Structure formats: C-alpha cells, structure tokens
Amino acid sequence: MALFRSFIAVLLMLQIALTIAMVHAQDDQSVFAGFISIDCGIPEGSKYTDKKTGLNYVSDANFIDSGVNQQILSTFKSNTLDFQLSTLRSFPENTRNCYTLRPEQGKGNRYLIRARFTYGNYDFKGQPPQFDLYLGNDHWSRVQFNVSLAVDYEIIHLTSSDYIYVCLVNIGLGNPFISALELRLLDSTMYAKDLRSLNLYARDNFGTTETIRYADDIYDRIWYPTAYSGIRNVVTSSPISLGPSTKEKVPSKVMSTAVTPINPTDDLLYSWKATDKTEVFIMYIHFAEIETLKSNQTREINIYLNGAYWDGPITLLDHTTSTYYTSFYNSSSYELKIARTKDSTLPPMYNAIEIYNPISLQQRQTQDQDATTMWSIKSTYGLKRNWQGDPCVPQDSNWDGVNCSNDTDNLRIISMNLSSSGLTGEINPALANLTMIQSLDLSYNNLTGSVPNLLASLNFLKTLNLTGNNFTRPLPAELLKKAKNGSLMLSIEAKGDQDTNACLKGSCKTKKHKNVVVIVIATSAALFLVLAILTALWITKRRRTHDPSIRDEFIEPRNQCFTYSEIQRITSNFSNVIGKGGFGAVFSGLIGETRAAVKMLSESSAQGYKEFQAEVSLLMSVHHKNITSLVGYCDDGIHKGIIYEYMANGNLGMHLFDASQNVLSWKKRLQIGYDAAQGLEYMHHGCKPLIIHRDVKCSNILLNEKLQAKLADFGLSRAFTTEGATHVSTVIAGTPGYLDPEYYTTNRLTEKSDVYSFGVVLLELITGRPAISADTYIVNWVKSMVEKGSVENIIDPRLHGDFEVNTAWKVVELAMSCVDTSSVERPTMNDVVMDLKNCLNGAKPNNLNHNMSLRLESIGGPNLR
Fold it and tell me: So what's the pLDDT on residue 748?
C-alpha cells in the first residue's frame, strides 16, 4: 500500500513555482565579526556604511525572494532617523514570509536579533498593520504600533541550529513589512543565567540624553536615555571597569552616567505594568559609583520590588560595574525602589536597567545537514519556488515538493519531488547528504552526465524516478543491483541491455515482503500496465492487512483501526502538535465532531513497535475513569499511532512548572493526586493480572476540561502474567527523578515501584517544584525541610498559605512514606487512595509527631545514569 501511494504521488505531483535565494556570501556585512546588518527594501546588490555606527549594511535581496521594496513618505524622514529605516520590504502576498540567516559562527551561540519597523505611511493608508513575528516555528511576538510609527523587537537567542529563520506572518490585519534586520553575536557568558530566549522589554540608560549603540557598545545593544522629574544627572569622564558580578559587559559610556534624587532623603523609583499577572520578567540592574566620595561619605542602598525586600545593603563600587539580577511574575504592575540605608550619607544611585520577558522556544527545525543540502540544491539549479524559511516546519508550510519525517526533535527530509522543475546540468552531489530520503523524483528535467553512484548509498531510498532526462550510460552497478534485489523502484528509460538485461531475464519478479522493482519504459502503455500491476498488488496487500488469519501482529480489531490517510485527515495533515515524548509527537484531531489526541510513533523513537503494541493491547483491556480511553489506533505499514480521548488541559506538569496562568489550589491538587492514585490502584488491584505502569510522572498524568486526572502513556507497562509472582525481573525503564532506587539496584520490578514514582508526583503537587532542578532532588529537599519542622516552607509558595496545616502534614507524610527506599515500608496504592480520600474530606491526622513518624533515615536520593 505504501509503495502504491508513493508511486501514484510521484506520477501526480504538480509543478509549483517557488523561490528564495541560497544564503551564502554573508561577508563584508560588518566591521565586527559575527554581525549581519540588513537594510530591507534597498535594491539588490546595494551596500553602504552607516554614518552613525560605522556598520556595513547590505540589501535583503539575498536573504528573501518575496516581497516588494517600498519607502516611507518624505514627511517622516529626518536627520535623526536611522538611514536604514527609510526603506522597507512589504509582503502583500503569501501568509508567511521568512528571512534566512546563517551566521558563520553557527549553532550553540547566543545572538541578539533585532527586527526594526518604521511604517511612515508608506502605503498611504494611514493605518499601520499588525502581524506576527516568528523565529522559525516559534512565535516571537506580535508587531503592534501604538502612538509611534516605529518599533523595534529584539530577542537574545541561544541557537540550536546553524540556521536562523525570521518570519513575518499575516494575521489578517494588514500586510506585514520590515525595515531592517540585525544579528549580533554575543559573548557566551552574557545573559547566561537563563537558558530561555529573552525578549527585550526595556533597556534604559540614566543620566544622559544620548542614545548609545555601536561602537560604544561593541555588541550594538541600543541603550535609550530615560529621564523623569526629581532626579539629578551624574556624569564622569573616567572609564568604568567591569566588576566580577557582571557578565553582561555593559559599556563604559553607559555606566559613566547615572541619576540620584535631588532630595537626598528620597528614593529612586522605577515602575511599569505587565500585560497580565502571568507575564514573567527578568531584570538586570547595573550600578557603579561614579562620584568621587570624601572620606566621611558613604553610599549604601537596599533594593525593593513592590515593597518587598530584594537585596542589600549594597555598597556601590568605585568606577566599577556591579550587576544585580532577579526573575519574578504574578503582579499586574511593578515598582522598583532603590533606597538609601540608615547608615548611608548619600542618596541612592543607579546607572542602567535591562528588563526581559523570557520565552521557551522549541526550536524545532530541520536537521542542519538536510537544510544545508536543500539550500545547495536551490542555489545550484536556480529554483524558482516558494522555498523560504525552514524546509520542514511549520508542517502546513513545508517546502513545495518536500515531505519530512514527523520526528518532533530531529526533522529529516524523506521525500522530494523536483519533477518538471527545469533542472539542468548534473545531479548535485549534495543529495548524498539526505541520508533519510525514501523517495526522489528528478523526472522530466534536462539533467545530463552520468547518474552518480552516490544515489546507491542512500540506504532508505525506495523510489527513484529519473525518467525524461539525458543521462549517459552505464548506470551505476550498485543502483542496478538494488533494483534487481527489490530494495529500490528505479524508473528510467531503458537504453540497451546494460539497463534492462537483469529484469528481462526475470530476476526482478516480486518477492515476499519486497517492493516491486521495475525499470520503466516511458510510454503510456507501459505506464498503465505498471499501474494495473501495482493496483492488484495493493488490493492483495490490503486484504492481507485486514485478514486476522494472515496478519502476524497480535492486536485485535476491538477498537477502531484507522488507515494512515484517515489519520492525516483527522489531524489536518498533522498541523497541530499538542505534545511530544519518547514515543513521538501528539497531534490534535477531529473524528466527526469529537476531538481526539493522536500519538504517532516516530521512526527514530527509542520506544518501538513492541511498546506500541503493549500500549494498544493494554488500553483495549483496561477501562477506568482515571485512565485515558482508547479511541482507536493506526497500524498501517511503517505508520503506527494511537488515538486517545482528548484531554483539554494537557499534562499536570504544565500546570505546576510552566508559569501557568491559574495556580492550582490546594484542594484541586489533592483531587488530582486522588484521581491519579485511583487509576494506579485499579491497575494494581483491579486488573488480573496486575499491571505496573513503570513510568508514573507528571507529564503522564493528563487533565480533562474539568481538571479530572487520568493516567496515560502505557508503552513501558508490564503485567504480572505468572500468578502469585511477587516481582518481575526486567531491564531498567523509567524516568530519572521518578525511578524507584530499589528497582534500579536490583532489577526487581514490583507494584511498589509505581508507589515510589507516585510519591515523587505527590511531592511535586505539594511543593510546585520539579523532581530534579538545579541539581537538587525533591525527595532530599523535602526531607531536609521536614527535619526543620515547618510545613509552611514545604508547600508551594504560590498558594500564599491557603491550605490546612494538619492536612498538609498528612499529605507530606504520605508522600515521604511512598518514597521510602525500602519497598516493604511503602504503602500500597489502596492505602494511598484511602489516605488521600481522608485528606480531601478534611480528616485530621492522628496526633502524629511528624518529625518522628517519618523514617527519614531511609529516604534517599535518585540513582541517575
């Protein structure tokens, strides 16, 4: 069936015009290595040196092929306007238009990326548009213009790929446009306290009226002057050195100005508003003492945020920068206060502030090797197709004629159709780098020269169409060998015995479990004959697939079985990823009017077909309100998938660790723990034989629209098939942080291994902390807090004390008993369910001395490999 579909697709794919220039020759763009400076909208081939900064700017024509060059109206131009902001490129066509940057320093580096927009009524509409800004497949920001008709969007980004795609997406509120695009390589130590990408919120320089950027700042950050009433500017002509506490390399010119209050008893105040309470901020405050103090003078400060003490007392260093950093959220407005201490003789002072919004980007991109190959192919053949941005993502914007694997972490190109694309010259050797490609169509071009042997080295290549070109002979022996043995379907005009002898002698007949292999004679009659043969084979294969007596697999059709094409239709061609894991990606879909979740097995998944079978088989036999329900499955050739009921609120971890908008209440946490415990209790005590989940963790506990919890992901589950068995000896499986240490050291799996993992989940519910964070294991941390005798310091601080202390102690005690290193000391899931039910009903613990009741000496850390 897969062969038939591939062959039909090869024959029916249409030529689509598309274009984007190969990004190379990015030299001579800046006087500073690691810079890319693009003036959008100037003629192709143009370049100049900016008079203000001395930076070299180039046209954007070699970075994008779509769009229209425009200029802002002359009334908006001025001597103060940066030269590169007077032109722009607008995008009246295509929903998504992408610039492709490839800095020579490559991935693993931290870059500042700045997109600049000046509307200037270029379209005479008097209404600036709104549109979305993306980094590859990840949303960066929404571009909006308020009073100003010019805005900058800047992000500090640690790259995982050699390619950086900056994309503008039309959201129906006017045509996107861009004036300038700038990339700056940063030092690896800068802004390294947070591995997330940092969206710039504000970068303010105090005590000056001058905007500072390159060359005063060798990283070309733009420091805007900020002034307000009641302050006095302080300036020094002496250089400011970098102190040991700052890695951000703030320029001396920025630090040489500062402000203090005119009234020496006043505080310095700095305030701003958040979009909502969930908006997370990261702040860097830069201090330096730039006045020469007398022997009897001191300047000592405390820092407060929204009235709460943050840091201090701090003594500013003489002409040396000190940087103070913090992260915070959960307020609609903020006020920073810098106050003098009671021992200070001088008022407070500060020099500069940076504020960022951290965002977590998936950075899901085509593997660099495949992306480089595609750009090489485009450049070599001068292809005019709508090829821009990442070849594989987003899925609904795949490059025309290109199909990719569904692996969420390592996207690879698996098929390419360049039929009738006007290709000339020889086959590009770069094709050998598409090591996962399965189908390649180069038919009906004007390719010449010999067919390279490199095509035979592509181990996954199953279909190769070279019909309609002018290749010389002979064909590579290895290629013909693959065609003969049935591992490759090769299509090319026959030219003598050197091409066809093997097949004419009958050695290319269909073999069991082999694809049909033919060398196609390019005539209509032969084509119809081949299609007829393949149709018959497809019908035979389909009958075999649906005949239980023929199939080897043990999955019985008790729940609905879906074909791969049906799965594609259900998921709108896998357009909405809602999760990912070791098995593969999870997509949202619709079956009729009912929403479902579709988990597809990745070809490169560490979990394989055995786990797929195990999960489907288990879910067919297990039915419980706290276990996700099986809707159906797909077992269609290489395509394997499981369809579950849709869980609208994702997994538990999303609500505990990802700065969720709504903090789970104490009662809701207990309810979720109780729900999950009931699911495990059923598996341990309600199933015959009993089933051990083996991978209980927050990400495998899903929540529906009512926040009811259900267990999921049973690919590692094991059943006790031997009656009366106390354990199963098995290879270690599970997740670090949740893994039972006794199971890890003995390989003896029991139901108490699930109890241990569930105990870690309970601790996460209680504390709001992940199992492992900053090299701290949650079990050890809670143990140390219990020894101090204060439950208030254990409970998630986001609850602000809104919990019942006695019940909290009971739940902590229960969780710690679950994670006892000795399995015999752990409760059963029956016991856990009963205790959690009592806690939910407000039952008080039985006058326990909590420090003494826990066997803390038996609580150990995880065994991590």
Answer: 82
Domains along the sequence of the chain with CATH: 35-196 (2.60.120), 198-359 (2.60.120.430), 368-546 (3.80.10.10), 560-645 (3.30.200.20), 655-858 (1.10.510.10)
At 558, the pLDDT band (50, 70, 90 cuts) reads: very low
Q: Tens of pLDDT along 791-817?
A: 888 999 889 888 988 899 999 999 999
Q: Is the bond leading into 827 cis (omega within 30 degrees of zero)?
A: no
Q: How many Cβ atoms from other residues are within 10 Å of residue 110's Cβ?
A: 20
Distances (CA, A) of 498 to 456, 464, 470, 501, 764: 17, 18, 16, 6, 68
SS3 815: helix
Q: Which residue has the higher pLDDT, 142 or 149?
A: 142
Alpha helices for 226-270 (secondary structure H): 252-255
Side-chain-facing half-sphere of 190: CA atoms under 13 Å:
21
Sort 27 into a burial class: Cβ within 10 Å, 0-12 / 13-18 / 19+: exposed
**pTM (two decimals):** 0.59
State the Cα–Cα distance between residues 596 and 576, nearest whole angstrom.
Answer: 12
- What's the angle, vertex CA 301, arms to CA 189 and CA 243, rounded to 5? 25
Active-site amino acid positions: 695
The closest alpha carbon to 145, from 164, 160, 161, 125, belongs to: 125
Short-list 179, 180, 177, CA closest to 93: 177
DSSP state of 827: P
The string of DSSP codes covering 97-156 is EEEEE--TT-SS-EEEEEEEEE-TTTTS-S---EEEEEETTEEEEEE--SSSSEEEEEEE
Mean pLDDT within 470-479 = 92
For the record, the structure tokens of 502 come out as 């093997």
Question: What's the longest Cα–Cα distance across the chain?
Answer: 105
Dihedrals phi, psi of 385, to nearest 5 degrees: -135, 170
Do the Cβ atoms of 203 and 222 come closer than 8 Å?
yes
Per-residue pLDDT reduced to its tens digit, 521-543: 344 444 454 455 555 555 444 44
Q: Which three-class secondary structure state does DSSP give residue 607?
A: coil
Cα–Cα distance, 540 to 1 (Å, whole number): 9
**Amino acid in the structure at residue 419:** S
Burial, 554: exposed, middle or buried (Cβ in 10 Å; 0-12, 13-18, 19+)?
exposed
Quote the tokens at residue 74. Answer: 């002359």
Strands (E), 63-109: 68-71, 87-90, 96-101
